[in-house]
């Protein structure tokens, strides 16, 4: 049996556990300091075994996944470095930053075992094992950061195990990883939080802000609901990169202030055109670090039974819905339903079926 030990069975650790559990030849052990969490892991059947003992979880493990907040990764590496680990054991992590943890591991020179940094670039704004899913990483990129000293056999064994996630593995230098992920993930999280807090401040004097802030605002600020501790650690860890990005962000915003002050319509158009052009060159609908499902929006009349009608229609044609959300439903306005699908084909089928009777938007 290949033993996989997971430290921190939350959203990411729990999702990995669900990818591995029940696969032939694999046994999954979860670790938490907290006995209540250990009980929860077992009750939810995300792991085969669970323990509060680091020694027990790590003993004879072939793979160790560190899935705790970024600020605790080094502490776990230090703890593991003094334990008798199985020779050839591969230790990896899932932290959203890669430079500090890989440097720490190489400084520690873990005897007879190999550290390979990892970052599954998919997630969501929810945290905890309750939000875990075996399909979280499907079709997403999964960064690994082996270095020149990483034996090929250790990398290949980890890559083979990670096939169970159905993610696309990609090797990236840890420092470059932090620069790029800082720009495409960390900066957008800060912007979303700052934007929500700015509007919340205005809302204190007039609740119409909140009431009118529907669809678009909700969509672009979803990630502002991410876990505060996880994000505190990520931002502090990658602060040098992020500070530079925020200075560049200030320049972008100052540019807009200047264009507005000068009533520079041509300049404003140019900015929108440039953004549009770059955006249309982005990979189509691949699950990225800021994930999206295949969503469609359906305008629905406000009458009882409408949701059942739609779900029954889709169900009868074997279209798999992954989520359904009423975005707007008040007495005086028609509702909008957001239907999410995991696969593009399913979304296309739903579009065909629904457009006969409803106004549907992508
Ligand atoms: N949330 C996301 O979408 C993504 C997060 N990550 C990274 O994955 C790691 C875990 O994040 P999530 O699973 O989202 O968080 P989570 O909050 O769902 O899970 C964290 C786990 O670590 C445990 N934990 C928390 N503090 C601890 C401490 N001081 N000592 C020991 N265990 C502790 C918790 O009990 C929980 O099991 C983080 O390093 C994060 O940067 C990577 C990709 C996506
Ligand atoms: O919810 C989203 O869209 C995310 O951006 C999730 C996420 C959070 C942290 C990561 O390191 C990777 C992905």
Automatic annotation (TrEMBL):
Q: Name one GO biological process term.
A: tyrosine biosynthetic process
Enzyme group, top EC level? oxidoreductase
Please state every residue range assigned to the domain named Prephenate/arogenate dehydrogenase: 2-290
User: Where does this protein act, in terms of pathway?
Assistant: Amino-acid biosynthesis; L-tyrosine biosynthesis; (4-hydroxyphenyl)pyruvate from prephenate (NAD(+) route): step 1/1
Q: EC number(s)?
A: 1.3.1.12
Q: What is this protein called?
A: Prephenate dehydrogenase
Among PROSITE patterns, the record links this protein to: ACT, PDH_ADH
Top-down, what is the taxonomic lineage of the species of origin? Bacteria, Bacillati, Bacillota, Bacilli, Bacillales
SUPFAM superfamilies cross-referenced by the UniProt entry: 6-phosphogluconate dehydrogenase C-terminal domain-like, ACT-like, NAD(P)-binding Rossmann-fold domains
State a single Gene Ontology molecular function: prephenate dehydrogenase (NAD+) activity
Give all residue intervals belonging to the ACT domain: 295-362
Which family is this sequence assigned to?
A: Belongs to the prephenate/arogenate dehydrogenase family.
Swiss-Prot/TrEMBL keywords: Amino-acid biosynthesis, Aromatic amino acid biosynthesis, NAD, Oxidoreductase, Tyrosine biosynthesis
**Known catalytic reactions:** prephenate + NAD(+) = 3-(4-hydroxyphenyl)pyruvate + CO2 + NADH
Source species, please?
Paenibacillus tianmuensis
């Amino acid at each position: 049996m290949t033993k996989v030990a997971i430290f921190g069975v939350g959203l990411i650790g729990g999702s990995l556990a669900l990818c591995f559990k029940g696969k032939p030849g694999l046994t999954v052990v979860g670790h938490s300091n907290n006995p209540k969490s250990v009980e929860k892991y077992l009750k939810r059947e995300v792991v085969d075994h669970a323990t509060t003992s680091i020694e027990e979880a790590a003993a004879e493990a072939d793979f160790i996944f560190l899935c705790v907040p970024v600020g605790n990764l080094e502490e776990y590496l230090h703890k593991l470095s003094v334990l008798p680990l199985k020779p050839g054991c591969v230790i990896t992590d899932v932290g959203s930053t890669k430079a500090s943890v890989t440097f720490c591991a190489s400084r520690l020179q873990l005897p007879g075992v190999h550290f390979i940094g990892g970052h599954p670039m998919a997630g969501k704004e929810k945290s905890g094992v309750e939000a875990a899913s075996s399909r979280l990483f499907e079709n997403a990129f999964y960064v690994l950061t082996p270095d020149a000293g990483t034996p090929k056999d250790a990398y290949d064994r980890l890559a083979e195990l990670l096939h169970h996630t159905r993610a696309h593995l990609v090797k990236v230098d840890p420092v470059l990883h932090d620069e790029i992920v800082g720009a495409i993930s960390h900066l957008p999280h800060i912007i979303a939080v700052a934007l929500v807090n700015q509007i919340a401040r205005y809302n204190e004097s007039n609740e119409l802000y909140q009431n009118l802030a529907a669809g678009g605002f909700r969509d672009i600020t979803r990630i502002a609901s991410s876990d505060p501790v996880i994000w505190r650690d990520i931002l502090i860890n990658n602060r040098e990169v992020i500070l530079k990005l925020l200075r560049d962000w200030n320049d972008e915003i100052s540019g807009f202030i200047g264009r507005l002050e000068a009533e520079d319509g041509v300049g404003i158009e140019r900015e929108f055109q440039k953004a549009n052009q770059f955006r249309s060159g982005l990979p189509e609908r691949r699950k990225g670090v800021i994930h999206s499902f295949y969503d469609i929006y359906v305008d629905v009349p406000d009458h009882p039974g409408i949701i059942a009608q739609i779900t029954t229609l889709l169900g009868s044609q074997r279209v798999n819905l992954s989520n359904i959300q009423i975005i707007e439903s008040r007495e005086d306005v028609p509702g909008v339903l957001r239907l999410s699908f995991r696969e593009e084909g399913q979304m296309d089928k739903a579009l065909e079926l629904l457009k006969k009777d409803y106004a549907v938007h992508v």
